[in-house]
From TrEMBL:
The keyword Phosphoprotein does not apply. Keywords: Cytoplasm, GTP-binding, Nucleotide-binding. Residues 1-170 form the Dynamin-type G domain. Pfam families: Dynamin_M (PF01031), Dynamin_N (PF00350). InterPro entries: Dynamin, Dynamin_GTPase, Dynamin_N, Dynamin_stalk, G_DYNAMIN_dom, P-loop_NTPase. Its main location: cytoplasm. GO terms for molecular function: GTP binding; GTPase activity; microtubule binding. It is found in: Cytoplasm. This is Interferon-induced GTP-binding protein Mx.
Length: 369
């Protein structure tokens, strides 16, 4: 029943894969390692390092990873398996007595069911009894049998987790309290923007947007209250906008130069003749020249925007979504058009009349033959 279950939360992490198998990626080892490190690097996490007894403890991947993030062995609990599969004349007594590679929380030995036991339908109760008999009867483990086995491991983990939570709770409470104070201070800044009257919400929203606009302008101009020395806040997008605007401003021609160019163009078009009207070609030539000058800054902007993978992905997603939506509408319109054509045959249409006349003539000629 649930009354006999222990309060325990475990995260089962995979073992390190050295050689990719099947369709596994070439960097599977590093992917698994990164995933494991995301969990065990946290200070409030207890590490359960499982190592088989028939392997060299110095080569244990679990203990090596645990030592990388817990060099003093404060958070690591060692579990030694396959004690019944060790070579004759050898044992793991030195390890289980925490003398070979000491851990603050020690080691616990367990004996699990073998594949033969599983195939033989050996149940959990019988397996636990066999495990107890193994430790009690073994000459190297008999004196520590009471602190070995799966049941003791369960109780020990529950106790360790409870103690660990008790140890970490004060610091965790202080951390939450600090965050709460910071959030309260932040919320206090916006308390004056909280309208009691629902009809004032639009005005309040406009005030917030205006406040944000002023702060953003101060940051751009460097006239804000605080100067950040930790990171560069003017991002690449803003730099592109500033570059493009300045590039367009450089393309603007002086009014006197523009008038002179127009005058030269008109004279060149008239040639030796005296013109009565102002030719459109003169203005077209000037406009085309100005438009062609947009080519360089626009192309440079495109090249700079090409380094925005998120923008490209988002654009592709929007375009693909629009295509799919329009595809369905297109299908509906085509089906509707076909239904309209099928619902009424206009025999008075000139194409239909012409076709009917051609058929009549052909039949008449055929009958004469």
């Amino acid at each position: 029943s649930l009354l006999h279950l222990l309060d325990l939360t475990l995260v089962d992490l995979p073992g390190i894969t050295k050689v990719p198998v099947g369709d596994q990626p070439a960097d599977i080892e590093y992917q698994v390692r990164d995933m494991i490190m995301q969990y065990i690097c946290k200070d409030n996490c207890l590490i359960l390092a499982v190592t088989p007894a028939n392997a060299d403890l110095a080569n244990s991947d679990a203990l090596k990873l645990a030592k990388d993030v817990d060099p003093q062995g404060q958070r690591t609990i060692g579990v030694i398996t396959k004690l019944d599969l060790m070579d004759k004349g050898t044992d793991a007594r030195e390890i289980l007595e925490n003398r070979l590679l000491p851990l603050r929380r020690g080691y616990i030995g367990v004996v699990n069911r073998s594949q033969k036991d599983i195939d033989g339908k050996k149940d959990i109760k019988a397996a636990l009894q066999a495990e107890r008999n193994f430790f009690r009867s073994h000459p190297a483990y008999g004196h520590m049998a009471a602190k070995m086995g799966t049941p003791y491991l369960q109780k020990m983990l529950n106790q360790q987790l409870t103690n660990h939570i008790r140890e970490q709770l004060p610091a965790f409470r202080n951390h939450l309290h600090t965050q709460l104070l910071a959030l309260n201070r932040k919320a206090e800044e916006y308390r004056k923007y909280v309208p009691d009257d629902p009809t004032r919400r639009t005005k309040t929203l406009l005030q917030l947007v205006q406040h944000l606009s002023v702060d953003f302008e101060k940051l751009i101009e460097g006239s804000g209250d605080k100067v950040d020395t930790d990171y560069f806040f003017v991002n690449k997008t803003l730099i592109l906008v500033i570059y493009y605007c300045s590039a367009l401003l450089q393309l603007e021609s002086d009014e006197r130069d523009l008038r002179r160019e127009i005058t030269y163009a008109i004279r060149n078009i008239h040639g030796v003749r005296t013109g009565l009207f102002t030719p459109d070609m003169a203005f077209e030539a000037i406009v085309k020249k100005q438009i062609s000058r947009l080519n360089e800054p626009c192309m440079k902007l495109v090249d700079m925007l090409a380094s925005f993978p998120k923008l490209r992905d988002e654009t592709e997603k929007i375009v693909n979504t629009e295509i799919r939506e329009q595809e369905n509408k297109c299908r509906d319109q085509i089906l509707l058009l076909i239904e309209i054509q099928l619902s009424y045959i206009n025999t008075k249409h000139e194409d239909f009349v012409g076709f009917t006349w051609s058929v009549t003539v052909a039949l008449h000629v055929t009958s004469r033959v």
